[in-house]
Known about the structure:
The protein is an all-alpha fold. The protein has a single domain (2-349), classed as Growth Hormone, Chain: A. The chain has 15 helices and no strands. It has helices spanning 2-16, 18-23, 27-43, 46-53, 55-67, 80-105, 111-139, 142-155, 175-179, 183-210, 214-239, 245-258, 265-292, 299-328, 330-343. The longest helix has 30 residues, at 299-328.
Amino acid sequence: MFGINFLAMTSFYLLLSVVPMYSGGTGAGLATGVLMLATVAAELVSPRFVARYGYRRVLAVGLVLLGAPAFALPATKDAILVVCLLRGVGFAIVVVVNGALVATLLPPERRGEGLGLYGVVANVPAVVALPLGVWFAGHIGFPPVFLAGGAVALAGLAAVSGLPQRPQEPEQALGVLGGLRTPALVRPATVFAAVTMAAGVVVTFLPAATGSVAAAALLAQAAMATVTRWWAGRYADRHGAAGLLAPAAVLVAVGALALVWATSPVVVLSGMVVFGAGFGIAQNASLSMMYDRMPASAYGTVSAVWNIAYDGGLGIGAIGFGALAAWTGFPLGFAVTALLVLVAMPLVRRPVRVACAA
């Protein structure tokens, strides 16, 4: 499962900033937005398909949809939005299946650290592939990056047969739509969605706003997020995850605000280190809180809701910032992004009714 996740995330991050660069202009935000909104739509139904067809078949379809459409990008720009839509569906399947499966394999008392290791596997591609894709696109051109992104995802098919075929427990009647009406899930997910909205802004518009320092800034952000996601898991096992989410949101807001001074490489790099720290902590803290609040039979729902928050935030951030920046310019747009993250923070402290854990 970790091997499949590593390859799928490498494919995803390799093209995440490159496709908007290839699209150019106002199409940059639209490309990321279509990718992530298609992901959200597919995440709503992915647990149902897993329950009907099992992990292996559904995950194989997801890997094909994530990888194969990228091969069309070198031929024409006209297919960008269709490719983004198909890859978004494939990505949704991969993250929902892997997110549900990893939780069932972890003992509850070590879940935080296990999710941290899972996060390392997911974030290492962000550390390497996200800035590397931008660098390669600028130095050797877009087509080799697109071909590599497609091939890496398809390579994951070799490991699918090593997964269990069926969930250990049937998904409870709550379902994804029910999960989206459950305060114990929705409140941490909403805070996390605000954080990922800022991340969508960063990965889509940082290259345009900062120029030559973009690759180094993306590397700093992703590297810090990887380290802090693992650390947050260890902390959560010992002290609980709930106290981490609000500080993480503050760090993300501070990092986004630093991009107001995008002409200063020192400020940009420092801001992305702070942003990455908050983003990594928020990923683990929100997911740990949501698993802790639900029984094992609802882990598929938890995975889907968390990933909807993640991917919906990325998409909304990319589309919304593109429209806002066209009117206000980048500096004010980054300041508004930081403010929106802080606005969601009060949801962390509101009491919720927690479901009995299995």
